[in-house]
Amino acid sequence: MENFIDIEKKWQKFWEENPNLYHAIDNDKSKTKKYVLVEFPYPSGSGLHIGHTFSFTGADVYARLKRMQGFNVMFPMGWDAFGLPTENYAIKTKQKPQKVTKDNTDMFRRQMKALAFSFDWAREVNTTDPKYYKWTQWIFIQLYNKGLAYKQEMPINWCPSCKIGLANEEVVNGHCERCGSEVERRTISQWVVKITEYADKLIEGLKDTDFIEKVKQAQINWIGKSDGAKIRFKLSPNSASILSSSRPQTSSSDDSGRKIDASSDHELEVFTTRPDTLFGATFMVIAPEHELVSRLMDNEEIKKYVVNARSKSDMERTELAKDKTGVFSGLYAINPVNGKEIPIWISDFVLASYGTGAIMSVPAHDERDYDFAKKFGLEIVPVIEPEGGWDFEKAPYTDVDNGKIINSEPINGLTPAAAFEKMLTWIKEKGIGEKTSSYHLRDWIFSRQHYWGEPIPMIYCEEHGWQPVPENQLPIVLPEVEQYEPTDNGESPLSTISNWVDTVCPVCGKKARRETDTMPNWAGSDWYFLRYIDPDNDTEIASQEKMKYWMPVDVYVGGDEHNTLHLLYSRFIYKFLYDLGVMPKENPEPYYKRLSHGVILGPDNQRMSKSRGNVIVPEDVSTKYGVDVVRMYLMFMGPFDSTMAWNENTLMGVKRFLDRLQNYFDKQSKQINNENASNAKVDVIINKLIKKVTEDTDNFKYNTAIAKMMEALNELNALGETYIGGKYLKDIVKMLAPFAPYSTEEEWSKIKNDKDEISVHIAKWPVADETYLVEDKMRVAIAINGKVRDEIEIESENQNNQSEIISAAKETEKIKSWLSGKSIVKEIYVPGKMVNLVVRD
RNA sequence: GCCGCUGUGGUGAAAUUGGUAUACACGCAAGACUUAAAAUCUUGUGCUCUCAAAAAGCGUGUGGGUUCGACCCCCGCCAGCGGCACCA
Fold first, then answer.
1. Which residue is nearest to nucleotide B13 (CA to C1')?
2. Residue A87: band (very low, low, confident or very high) from pLDDT cuts 50, 70, 90
3. Which nucleotide is nearest to A650 (CA to C1')?
4. What letter would DSSP give residue A527?
5. How far apart are CA A88 and CA A737, in angstroms?
6. Most buried by CB count within 10 Å: which residue of A120, A445, A733, A800?
7. Residues A75, A21: contact at Cβ < 8 Å?
């Protein structure tokens, strides 16, 4: 007999020579389409890891099932290949990133083919291919044209040792991921994408999807919508005159037209979720970055505080969260509802990036305001009191569901909820504010000062400002050069390539400069699922007709770590393109179902990592035991979405099962020509198996599907020398095929006849014959007071004959002894399941 | 602190969603084959009581509740995991 290595070689070659087995056919109306997507990998130098193997196998099993069930399945694969690790590796080994990427994707592709994933390789995409990123750049231009991309001074994470700007994801606990030195803040002019414009649409759109609750919640939390009001506080006359005498020297913003701060010299605008507590506002606090503060820098104390606060990293600010700091601004505002003059403080616990960068402080009813008031001896005025009173000396009262409004002349006695509504109308009538919402979601910083990314297709002209590259000049190809190390000044390495940077203005034709920043990693992975639909299209992102056929993605398999950022960015870009009219109007959402796969831990129950030395390399295990064993084990070890530890003993159990099955097939093959040699027991075993395996596989419950196959084999073996016939033998091979593609293909080649498909992987999935699912006899449990004491066997056709079954139940020896001396007060019969007799002494 | 999830044998886990708890697999024990070991096969395996068996009792983190009947539904608590976190 051939060993598994020969078998794998043989069939890999066969599949390579027959790629049409897994081809998805565009616009095939004769079949129902099924778009099965799994997150494409970043092709790192260390090859496919066990997590990839796990999630890809899970998606592959599903794709194979659907294909065999007669769907027109698209199951594509590609490479999310821009990114820092490649750039760093290239710098270290003095190779071109293009070359490193090529080597890595070649390795990944080879490993994937060895693992028998049924990808449609004709649709392979690569985010670093100019033909691909032409469209990534095109999307950016559309964003710019619609006013959703703007340039702004933004603080970034700066590594002083690498001399490079770091993305948030490259900062680990306040330190540079690469060199470990502490990250500083620096302000750099950056491209920003207005995802916040779509915040509401991204929340509402979730109802058009079938994501699991956990994912929907993650998205909603990340967007973090709060309903409340904007309220304008007039400054006291004195304060207003102080300010008007010190206008800011220059406006810090350049051309974005965005104003963070809507306040004028006479007003200070705040956002609050608690307008019901407005009468309790006894002071105000503004962020050190607030526009007003820049006009108060003559005061040494304020200047010192502000300079210090601005130099703090986000880390430091939040770490010191408990201990409030602050300084009095010298200014006063008027509480619009009671005319009270209240002080304005400056403190870094107020975030410039949320709301208006200024708050009204109600210390009696907010933890942070309370801490601040206690520390600086500010007034605390309660405006809500619960029944039974509250000791405001000890703590603030923050419960919104209970209590009555006090100390608030026109609204006294209302509940906080009623007061909330009342105040919204009131501030509107008085013209001092209006209802609004605020979001945790921030606009998306889109610039990276790295080489290995998509060039941002923008040109700067002295006269005409920022202009998009004309679309017919796309793609702007990343120049291949010798120098792509980071520069000293924090600019992208592209800035040193003068013959690339120097260009002409698309408006006036005069000298102009290209943008030298590149896009973040997310840019290419936002929309890749669209490109699979039409990977070679040169004139459109994808053809309308094809998108109409394939969209939406039916099932999207990915990791929990992408449930917020990637999924949100991706939905945003899709919705933007949808509003642009580029997407089919039937599909406002890109993904119908989202499935998150679990995590495979090392044998020590710890996350796999090189430093722990607990890494399992798929290629090592598959050369030792065979690909089928590895695939099947991964699917058997537990539910597809849970965290599980690698255990080689359990893997051996799967291997034994496959070996036993092989023996069974070898014995059975003697009678292969006898299509229907079978008996009643076999009919039941196989048809039940088909039903269960089909259901479970369809629902990604692979572990129980495999358990059923094991159970069935045990049952068949227990029948001894019974031949089950060719049809059932083929059914078993088919059901196993998605999990164990090699050995089933081998077995299929032995047992198939001329009428059968050339490959088991395009054979027709079996359908259970319902007539065999009903057994003639059933076992009915008999319980006394809910505890099972005995059981009887009944004819299935009699299962609804309640009185007969109950009297039979009372007649068994065991039950009689349980009943003696007791009286039956109630009899319950669950058809075909059980009898419960409720008795009393 | 907030949001989400999970607690079932020695282990990974099942349970038709309110109807016989522990399927399947691992591990362990005993046996068969073998000079021996590995591999393979057979049998047993929740706990207590028992030389053993029968019978009984106890058993799904924990305390209550609803129900003829609860791993499943409701209320409270404990433990663990993941995400967010000075978001006004």
1. A638
2. confident
3. B26
4. S
5. 41
6. A733
7. no
User: CA-CA distances (angstroms) from residue A764 to A29, A71, A677?
Assistant: 19, 11, 21
d(CA A733, CA A709): 11
Strand intervals (E) in A412-473: 433-439, 444-445, 458-461, 465-468
Nearest nucleotide by C1' from A701 CA?
Answer: B14
User: What's the pLDDT score for residue A252?
Assistant: 41
**Whole-number distance in Å between A221 CA and B23 C1':** 39
What is the predicted ipTM?
Answer: 0.94
What's the Å distance between residue A661 CA and nucleotide B34 C1'? 25
C-alpha–C-alpha distance, residues A643 and A605, integer Å: 10
Using the structure, give the distance in angstroms from the CA atom of A35 to the C1' atom of B78, rounded to a whole number.
45
Q: Which nucleotides of B are covered by protein (CB under 7 A)?
A: 3-5, 11-16, 19-21, 23-27, 39-42, 56-57, 68-70, 81-88
Which nucleotide is nearest, taking the CA of residue A564 and each C1'? Answer: B83
Other residues' Cβ atoms within 10 Å of the Cβ of residue A539: 5
HSE, side-chain direction, 13 A CA sphere, residue A456: 31
Contact between A99 and A34 (Cβ < 8 Å): no
Report the interhelical angle of A627-636 vs A741-751 (nearest 10°): 120
Q: Do A383 and A362 form a contact (C-beta atoms < 8 A)? A: yes
* Distance measured from the CA of protein residue A787 to the C1' of nucleotide B59, in angstroms: 13
What are A146's two structure tokens? 């619609």
Q: Closest protein residue to B81 using CA and C1' atoms? A: A643
CA–C1' span, A561 to B84, in Å?
Answer: 13
| pLDDT tens track for A568-613 | 999 999 999 999 999 999 999 999 999 989 999 988 888 888 888 8
Torsion of CA A283, A284, A288, A291, to 10 degrees: -140
Cα A81 to Cα A309: distance, rounded to the nearest angstrom = 38
Nearest nucleotide, CA A709 to C1': B24
* Residue at shortest CA–C1' distance from B85: A318
Any idea which nucleotide's C1' is nearest the CA of A599?
Answer: B82
Distance from residue A582's CA to nucleotide B15's C1', rounded to whole Å: 48
The answer to whether the pTM exceeds 0.80 is yes
Cβ neighbourhood burial of A212 (10 Å; 0-12, 13-18, 19+):
middle
Please say whether the beta carbons of A781 and A835 come within 8 A.
yes
Strand, helix or coil at A721? coil
Residues recorded for chain A: 841
Give the nearest nucleotide to A348, CA to C1'. Answer: B86
Which of residues A466 and A91 earns the better pLDDT score? Answer: A466
Q: Residue A730 contacts by C-beta under 8 Å, 6 or more apart in sequence? A: A748, A751, A752, A756, A763
Nucleotide nearest A359, CA–C1', reads B88
Q: How far apart are CA A714 and CA A580, in angstroms?
A: 59
CA distance A443 to A616: 39
Measured CA A720 to C1' B42 distance, in angstroms: 14
Six token digits for residue A446: 């889109």
Tokens of residue A44, six digits: 């790192």
- Distance in angstroms: CA A556, C1' B74: 35
What are residue A364's phi and psi, to 5 degrees?
-70, -20
- Which stretch of DSSP H or E encloses residue A367? helix A367-376
Specify which residues A232 forms β-bridges with: A269
∠ CA A711-A716-A719, nearest 5°, is 130
pLDDT digits (tens, 9 = 90+) for A664-707: 999 888 777 676 666 888 998 999 999 999 999 999 999 999 99
Which residue do the tokens 């006090």 mark? A406
Nucleotide nearest to A324 (CA to C1'): B86
Specify whether the CB–CB gap between A727 and A89 falls below 8 A.
no
Question: CA at A787, C1' at B74: how many angstroms apart?
Answer: 23
HSE of A614, CA atoms in CB hemisphere, 13 A: 15
